[in-house]
Amino acid sequence: MALIVVIAVMSGFESDLKSRILGGQSHVVLMRYGGTLSDYRRVIKDVEKIPGVEAATPFIYTQIMLRSSSGISGAVLRGVDPESAG
Fold it and tell me: Which GO terms describe its biological process (predicted)?
């Protein structure tokens, strides 16, 4: 009986952990090396035709600098259009 409870708890923990990790991250990211993807609309249409793909949306991804009263720090900014995000 105790083993069943442990397995059930661990399965729930694994599921929760996966959803937390993947909740803020894409499963697949397509990027062009060294520049912008100018034909992203065509790429999105092609990707959406792939079986199992639930959503595809363009995003911006760039390095930024943040400054506060405690100092300066580098960060990565990733932005999506909420209306097109699945």
Answer: lipoprotein localization to outer membrane
pLDDT at residue 9 greater than cutoff 60:
no
CA neighbours within 13 Å on the CB side: how many for 40?
A: 13
For residue 40, report the phi and psi dihedrals to the nearest 5 degrees.
-60, -30
Least confident of 2-11, 55-64, 68-77: 2-11
Q: Residue 34 has what pLDDT?
A: 77
- Burial class for 45, CB neighbours closer than 10 Å (0-12, 13-18, 19+): exposed
What pLDDT band is residue 51 in, cutting at 50, 70 and 90? very high
CB 63 within 8 A of CB 74: yes
Are 56 and 47 contacting, i.e. CB atoms less than 8 angstroms apart?
yes
Name the helix (H) or strand (E) containing 21. helix 2-23
